[in-house]
Design a protein that fits this description.
ABC transporter involved in vitamin B12 uptake, BtuC; about 0% strand; mainly alpha; 2 strands
């Protein structure tokens, strides 16, 4: 009976740990002065937007059994291209955003082709793509910052709140729509089922007639496109873009990785929800706000994100070990043990 209760508790914890983490952070927010204000909540949600797009890209790749380590630099590239097309080339904002999105599509196709056709591990491919994107950004802007000049209409619009008593800017609302779009694709479409099956068992996916190469390429395209779009929108709202964005403090990739694991996405692939990653990123950003308010030290944020990530990785490793341990027990030996000893468990 105790074992069953423990199993139910672990199942509940694994299913809702992102929400539990958010609840714990909000509880400590009670002790932080002026934490639960519309302005502060809007700031947390708005600033979390870029990391949410990066987390979406990272999560969908991990569900498919791959890793996209280029998501952070892809977002920065989208930011630089969008502002560059507007400020340096004089294109209208829709065209600038579209070009940034197309750059993401091209990068995703390249990553996907190298993984599927060249048979290079996604870790190596996307690690190399980091340096390609970083070098490309420095060449494009000569290492200088790009700012919006004299055209802050769209920037002000993205930062404005359509409903004053709700902590949602237009950028936050657009981000929520994109999260729902990804969630629907992964949960309610054949492509989404194929992504989960591909990450769960590649051989089973092949036997089921799934075009693994096509699905893998499309996964990387969605990942890079989401990051490019998020970078473009966030850069426009901020009014500036810098090629060194994310290189100081806590890297966006680290936040995305931590949020993905907290959200319950299996490290080995086949299981995960983008909505859980979304909640986890909001919780992480809220945690940063609580810690800074209570301690006044930014350095504590770096320590906490490391502790949270290490704890999640250790926990996931333990859970997978226990799962493999159970799967490795031969059923005939279990039956023989029960018959000989009369015990119903090992």
């Amino acid at each position: 009976m105790e074992n069953r209760k423990g199993s139910k508790f672990m199942l509940f914890f694994n299913s809702y740990r992102a929400y539990i983490f958010l609840a714990v952070v909000l509880f400590f927010g009670i002790f932080a002065n002026n934490f639960f204000t519309v302005f502060n909540m809007n700031s947390i949600m708005h600033n979390a937007s870029l990391n949410i797009y990066i987390g979406l890209g990272f999560t969908i790749c991990m569900i498919a059994g791959h890793m996209d380590l280029s998501v952070g630099y892809m977002a920065t590239t989208g930011m630089m291209v969008a502002l560059g097309m507007r400020t340096l080339s004089g294109l209208p904002w829709p065209a600038a955003i579209l070009i940034a999105l197309l750059v993401g599509v091209v990068v995703g196709i390249i990553n996907g082709l190298l993984v599927t056709k060249a048979k290079i591990h996604s870790f190596i491919v996307t690690l190399g793509m980091q340096f390609v994107l970083r070098g490309g950004m420095y060449i494009y802007c000569n290492g200088a910052e790009i700012s919006v000049k004299g055209d802050f209409g769209l920037s002000d619009f993205l930062k404005s709140m359509p409903i004053k008593f709700l902590p949602f800017s237009w950028l936050t609302i657009i981000t929520i729509v994109i999260v729902v779009f990804f969630a629907v694709i992964l949960a309610m479409t054949r492509f989404g089922r194929n992504v989960h099956m591909l990450g769960g068992n590649l051989e089973t996916a092949w036997l089921a007639g799934i075009g693994s190469d096509f699905v893998t390429i499309l996964v990387f395209v969605l990942s890079s496109s989401a990051c490019a779009l998020g970078g473009a929108l966030y850069g426009i709202s901020a009014g500036t873009a810098n090629p060194t964005f994310g290189e100081k403090g806590i890297a966006p990739l680290m936040i995305a990785l931590t949020a993905t694991i907290i959200g319950g996405t299996d490290i080995n692939g086949g299981k995960g929800k983008v909505t859980n990653t979304w909640i986890s990123i909001i919780a992480i950003n809220a945690m940063f706000g609580v810690v800074t308010t209570l301690t006044g030290k930014y350095e504590i944020q770096v320590l906490l994100i490391g502790v949270v990530l290490a704890t999640c990785v250790i926990y996931e490793t333990y859970v997978n070990y226990q799962k493999q341990k159970v799967l490795g027990i031969r059923q005939d030996l279990v039956n023989k043990y029960v018959a000989e000893t009369g015990k119903n468990k090992l």
